[in-house]
Structures are given as structure tokens and as C-alpha cells.
Amino acid sequence: MSCAKKDTDCVQKLAERIRVGASESEAEQVLDQCGFTHSFDQRTGMIYALERGDKGGLVKQDWSAKIKLDVGRKVTSVNVEKVFTGP
Fold it and tell me: What is the pTM of this model?
């Protein structure tokens, strides 16, 4: 299996890998393993993450993830979607 295929599988199955109830550090560890750049917004209690797709071409397919945490910094929801960015 090529690295590209493995990375795509990791990204597409991110919501399965980050379970509701997981800690912030567990979620961030999975994001790191899947190649996401991420940050935590304390005001909203949300981890925002982005995984960049192919660099070639005018339009790029990237992946966006939003992970909501409760006051105890445990995952309450995971939303992953394809996003397309241009020049």
C-alpha cells in the first residue's frame, strides 16, 4: 500500500479513529498521525484542523476537521469534510 493511499484512508476514517469521549491529547495525536495541522480555540472549545491535499493544479482538495470538546476537554463531536481551495 502506498503512503498516499494510507494517508487518504487515515483522513477519511478520522471520525472513526477519534471517538466521542476521547481526551484532547488523544484527538491531537490522531490528527498528527494523519498529517493534519491543528489548533485549539479555547473560546469555542473546538479543535480546528486542516490536511492539505495535492499541491499541483489550480484547485486543491483538502480536508477540514472540527472537533468539539466539552469543559473537561473530552471529544463530544467530530466533523470531517472535503474542502476545495483555489489560488
Answer: 0.82
Report CA-CA distances (Å) from 3 to 6, 10, 14, 39, 50: 5, 10, 16, 25, 18
Q: Long-range contacts for 22-29 (Cβ within 8 Å, ≥24 apart)? A: 22/74, 22/75, 23/73, 23/74, 23/75, 24/69, 24/73, 24/74, 24/75, 26/75, 27/67, 27/69, 27/75, 27/78
pLDDT confidence of residue 71: 95
| Nearest alpha-carbon partner for 25 in 63, 72, 80 | 72
Q: Which of 6-10, 53-57, 67-71 has the highest mean pLDDT?
A: 67-71
Residue 16, helix vs strand vs coil: helix
Integer Cα distance of 47 and 41 in angstroms: 6
How many other C-beta atoms are found inside a 10 Å radius of the C-beta of residue 77?
A: 13
